[in-house]
Amino acid sequence: MDTLKIMQTAIRGRWAVAAIFLANGFLTGAWAPQIPVVLTRLDISKFTLGLLILLFGAGAVTAMTWCGHLISRHGSRSVLRWFGLIGSFGLLVVALAPNVPLAAIAMFIFGASIGGMDVAMNANAVTVERRLSRAIMSSSHGFWSLGGFAGGALGGFAIQNYGHLAHAAVVTALAFAVIAVAVRYLIAEGKPPQGSSGITGHRKFALPGNPLVYLVGLMALLTMISEGAVLDWAALYLQQELGTDLAVAGLAYAAFSGVMAVMRFVGDGVRNRFGAVTTLRVSALVAAAGMLVAGLAPSPWLAISAFAFCGFGIANMVPILFSAGGNQEGMSPGTGMSVVTTMGYSGILVAPSAIGFIAEHSSFSPIFVALSGLLVVVFLMAGLAHRAEFAPDAAPAE
C-alpha cells in the first residue's frame, strides 16, 4: 500500500513538473512577439535591443550559477516554487518598463527568473525520473516547446488587437495560475548521503581535463545559437525584411516551437530506433536546410515553413548533446553536464545580442544563412556524441 501511494505521488509530481515546463515555455514564447514592440515603444536601435536581450541572458546565467547551490541546500521543489511564482510576473514587468534603464533592470530580473526556474524544474524532473524509474525528460521538453508554441502563436494576435500590456497581463495570470496549482504536487528529493558526489552534493566544481567534453559543449553552443536566433529575431526579420504584420510575424517562432514539441514527444523512440549519432547527423542536416531556406525566403509564409522545418531538426539535437556530455568517460555526470550546458546556454542567452549588432549593420537574411553553416559543422562533428548511445539520459530544457 505504501508503494502504491509513493507511485501515485510520483505520477502527480510528474504531471506537476510537466505543467511547470509548459508554463516556462509559454512565458518564453510570449516574449518573442513582444520584442518588436520593445524596439518601437522605447524607440531604440537593434543594437540597443540586442544589449537588452544580453541582460536577459546575464540574468539567466547569474541565476543558473546560484540555483545549483540553492537546490543543494533547500531542494528543487522549494527553489522551483519561488522561482516559478516570481517568474510568472517577469514579462509583465518588462512590458511596464517606460524607459531603457528600467527596461534593462526588468530584462535582468525576467532572465534571472526564467533561468532559475529552468534549472530547478529540470532538477525536479530528474527526481521524478528516479522515483518512477523511467525517463520523462524528453516529453518534459515537449511540454516546454508546446508552451512556447502557444505563447508565440497567440502573442502576435493578442498584441495587435488588444495591446502589449493586455497581452502581458493575460500571460502573467495564466502562468501564475498554472504554476500555483502545480507547485502543490511537486515531489521532493531525499537528502543526499554525506560525501555524495551527486548533483546535489557540496563538492567544489573543477574543470575536467578531457577535451572531448568541450567539443561536445561546442556543438551544443552552435546548436543553441540557432535556437536563440529564431526566438529573438525571427519575428523582427519577418516584419522588417519580408513585410508582414505582427500577427503573422509571431507565427515564425510558434511554428518552430510547435514542430519541436511534436518531435520531442517522439524523440526517445526515434533515438532508440536509429541511435544517437545517426539521429544527431540527420537532425543537423534538416535544421541546416531549414535555416538556409528561411534566410533566402522571398515570402513570409515560406520563411515560416522553413523555420518549422528547422525546428523539426533542432528538436532532439540538444538533448542528445547534453546526454553525451553527462556520460563522458572518467568524470561524473554532473561535471560533464555542467560544462556542456554552460557552453550551450551561452549560445541561446548571449549570442543573440551579437546578432542584433550585426543586423544593425547589414540585415537578418545573411545571418540566418550563416547560421545554417554552423549547423553543418555540428553534422560534421556528430560522431563525437557517441557517448549518448550508451545512456540516453535526461537533459535540461533550452
Automatic annotation (TrEMBL):
The chain crosses the membrane at residues 15-35, 47-67, 79-97, 103-121, 142-159, 165-187, 212-234, 246-266, 278-297, 303-324, 336-358, 364-385. GO terms for molecular function: transmembrane transporter activity. Signal peptide: none annotated. It comes from the Bacteria. SUPFAM superfamilies: MFS general substrate transporter. Keywords: Membrane, Transmembrane, Transmembrane helix. It is a multi-pass membrane protein. It is found in: Membrane. This is Major facilitator superfamily MFS_1. It comes from Mesorhizobium delmotii.
